[in-house]
Amino acid sequence: MQALTDIKSDLTMEEAYRIQLVNIQKKVNEGHQVVGKKIGLTSIAMQELLGVDEPDYGHLLDTMAVESGGEIPPNRVLQPKVEGEVAFILKEELRGPSITVEDVMEATESVMTAIEIVDSRISDWKITLPDTIADNASSGLYVLGDNAVPIQGVNLPRLNMELFKNGERVNTGKGSAALGNPAKCVAWLANKLAKYDISLKKGEVILSGALSAAVNAKPGDEFSVRIDQLGEASVRFTK
At a CB cut-off of 8 Å and minimum separation 6, what does 35 contact? Predict the structure, then answer.
């Protein structure tokens, strides 16, 4: 698929978010459920690469969830990449525009190891920021680990993450890679969504942003992500 910005070079971020919301509403009208949100571009390096100074976000649908240890057939993805993240499970609603890190901590039931599979309809990932936003922030699928850990006592910035591909460690990261604190990413999202009168709801899954660079995936690859205190999540791409 051709990038939207190849067709409309002056596509703005605001217009791109409106496109995303229209498409999500279409999915909801078809019977899908919004079960959470994902945050992208949480690292300074990625923001500088795309020339922006804030993250972006997308929606998680019920059809995007894959069980830990599960399999992803080739027909479910186009050009997938794998990231390791911290997922937040909310016990209370978060509604901006004045949400703080402390508010996020109080509203969170538990945190979990998560794998996000980002994907893109745009050929060869030749995208700009408005392109990825319009494409639901390149959301593909996600995997939650089996270990839900109460957030109290978890030092989020100091968490260590390891990403393994076919048994080999290919990436490491720390919680501080996501805006200095993954909870800060969730606060940013709650405040950003207030502009569209959208809140983060009780029970939603919030993927707080990649803790290292995304890794390309192809049929036959197996991935696992380990985060100290939070445990492991794994997935396999079938041939």
Answer: 60, 61, 62, 64, 65, 204, 205
Phi-psi region of 82 (alpha: psi -120 to 50; beta: other; left: phi over 0): beta
Q: Average pLDDT, whole number, for the chain? A: 94
Is the bond preceding 97 in cis, omega lying within 30 degrees of 0?
Answer: yes
Contact 186, 200 (CB under 8 A): yes
Q: Strand runs (DSSP E) across the chain, as ranges?
A: 34-40, 56-61, 65-67, 70-72, 81-90, 108-118, 139-144, 149-150, 160-165, 168-174, 205-210, 215-216, 222-227, 231-237
Helix (H, G, I), strand (E, B) or coil at 200: strand
CA separation for the pair 39, 61 (Å, rounded): 14
CA distance 188 to 193: 9
* Cβ contact 93:201 at 8 Å: yes
Evaluate if residue 48 carries a pLDDT over 70. no
**Which among 96, 117, 80 has a CA at the least distance from the CA of 195?**
96
What gap in Å lies between CA 183 and CA 221, rounded to an integer? Answer: 31
Number of residues written out for the chain: 239
Average pLDDT over residues 211-224: 95
